[in-house]
Amino acid sequence: MKTIKLFILGLLFLAASSTKAQVSVNVNIGTPNINVNIGTPPVWGPVGYDKVEYYYLPDIQVYYDIRASQYIYFGNGKWIRTRNLPNHCRNYDLYHGYKVVLTDYHGNAPYTHFHTHKVKYYKGYKGKPQQNRRDYNEHHEHHDDHGHGNQGHEKHDKHEGKGKH
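Above: the chain sequence. Below: its structure as tokens.
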């Protein structure tokens, strides 16, 4: 354990001496990381699923790896990972297309269940209604702009009662 700490300190010293930037590093050897950050879900992803690793996009039969920010699709006889949608899907609307949230898969190859996913979540599949993160955030930011006083909300609430909801 001392060897590892000395090695890390040596690397830090070497890095600090070769650069003029200020560096701050926290090293916790032997301390378990309980709150693992899975990855930042994309703005087109559905609200309410911050701890998942994959989406399956049934309309285009593509997976999305949240941790790696990569699409996974089958092409040229193999599964391909890429930062961009494949060319044949470039016009697909990620914001309005349905995303199947794979809450029960934890691994590196969600496509091992592709044949099951393809049948269960066919092209055109729609499960529970979804709201994407961008629209949800914009909606809540808009409501936060009204201020904290009740006067603005009372006036706004009077108009909301007229018409169907």
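Residues 54-134 form one domain.
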